[in-house]
Amino acid sequence: xKAIYLDHAATTPVHPAVxxxxxxxxxxxxxxxxxxxxxxxxxRQELDRARTIAxxxxxxxxxxxxxxxxxxxxxxxxxxxxxxxxxxKGKHIITTKIEHHATLHTVENLEKQGFEVTYLDVNExxxxxxxxxxxALREDTILITVMMVNNETGVIQPIKEIGExxxxxxxxxxxxxxQAFGMLEIDVNELNVDLLTVxxxxxxxxxxxxxFLYVQPKITLTALxxxxxxxERKRRPGTENLTAxxxxxxxxxxxxxxxxxxxxxxxxxxxxxxxxxxxxxxxxSINGEYSQRVPTIVNxxxxxxxxxxxxxNFDLSGVAASSGSACTAGLWSLHMY
Length: 337
Description:
seven-stranded mixed sheet; Aspartate Aminotransferase, domain 2; Aspartate Aminotransferase, domain 1; 337 residues; globular; 13 strands
């Protein structure tokens, strides 16, 4: 029996080309990028090259890229780093109720420290209403954090419209682009975002070890860790995970080069899958059907279904899928890339 893996929004298999460059790095590039001898300089060259690749993928400058251990750390650094540094200007933060826990748990922690957080609802299609955000803005609002693509529904949020709205407000704008990166064209200048999060393991790169945070040049972050003085321009101390960074850079290049082709293929997979279910007259509905969505995530409801039993039977049949947070209501997701 051949297994079918449909949980790529949780993590993706590592691309063979990524494995190849990482293996070569482990064998050949073992110097510390902060060392001044030849081994260190070689490591620094590889780190700088990877930083340039990451920056170019979102139309940023390499100096504005901070390598982290993944999306969670990048979200934490963006949100807490901005909040701590700007708390003398205000302590109000705006986010949505559909954010990843890397964001929600971070702002909840800030609430315990005296910050005030407004949690915005989305409509029945999973889409944020710009007017709701506009109404929530205050003079003491210092940060807005809204994910670019929801990891369960695949709904694309109005990031460009939010960026335009905030042009006349001093608050900083962060977006978690973990599920969007590699699928959507991202230009931080056109979107007017100040901070943006990306994770390696969502695009066939190494998992559990590397991501990046884009930080607009005007922003000063309060570092969350203490250690090496100059690493990541004092924003994220610690010896860089060079092998993972090299693998990440390879994954980024592959994702950028194949983005249009992959997008079209995923649309065809999604449409074929849904049509087959309709042909078999299955009773289901698509959550977020009438919102703009990425084609890699299909979020379905089956009335009266026991999702845990359904997913268990799928697993026994060699199909890997995942339930969403509302699993008791018959909600499950396919992540098809």
